[in-house]
Give the backbone structure.
Amino acid sequence: MEKEIRKQEAEQTMLDERFEFRSIRPEEGEEAAEIERICFPPNEACSEKMMLERAAKAPELFLVAVDRQTGRIAGFLNGLSTNEESFRDEFFTDAGLYDPEGRNVMLLGLDVLPDYRLQGLGRELVRRYVRRERGNGRKRLLLTCLPPKVEMYKKMGFCDQGIANSSWGGSQWHEMSYTIPD
Ligand SMILES: CC(C)(COP(=O)(O)OP(=O)(O)OC[C@H]1O[C@@H](n2cnc3c(N)ncnc32)[C@H](O)[C@@H]1OP(=O)(O)O)[C@@H](O)C(=O)NCCC(=O)NCCS
């Protein structure tokens, strides 16, 4: 256990040195949309229009990891806060549902570029997002994922709520929920 904690701390220090973690800047919306195109098939990806709208309306609900060497985004996690309690697909398409005071966050995309994968960046984005939103008084994070990702999110602290009320991209999704401790 102690060994595991030390390993995680070493990984976090390494990621901190390599990446700057922060909210998105308005001019980075197109870059985020391009990363989304690389990370998801066309039927699942958020369109450029939606991404630009989200980045303009809710930049503080993005967490981007910028490679300090290149100045480019390597990965990001984004969402919209709301007082709603379960996920619905309209959150993907309507950034107008954003309620800055919302107690929950609907997560809309975890994206890590292929060159940066399997190095702990996805996990670190989730960990930091939870910490930040805990500081903002949020209660729960919700997301939908396909069956092959259920175990990955469980390892990151999410619970499987079963089949989601979603038909995004013509697939059947699981709703996953993370309860943020007080
Ligand atoms: C899924 C994704 C975000 C993972 O990012 P990553 O930086 O490679 O993830 P990490 O290195 O932090 O891995 C965290 C854990 O998840 C596991 N994992 C990583 N990618 C996985 C995948 N595609 N399927 C299942 N498990 C995966 C890792 O093995 C690791 O497990 P461990 O804790 O036992 O070591 C990245 O592959 C990606 O952007 N994929 C395309 C978009 C996508 O599918 N996003 C999620 C949508 S629901």
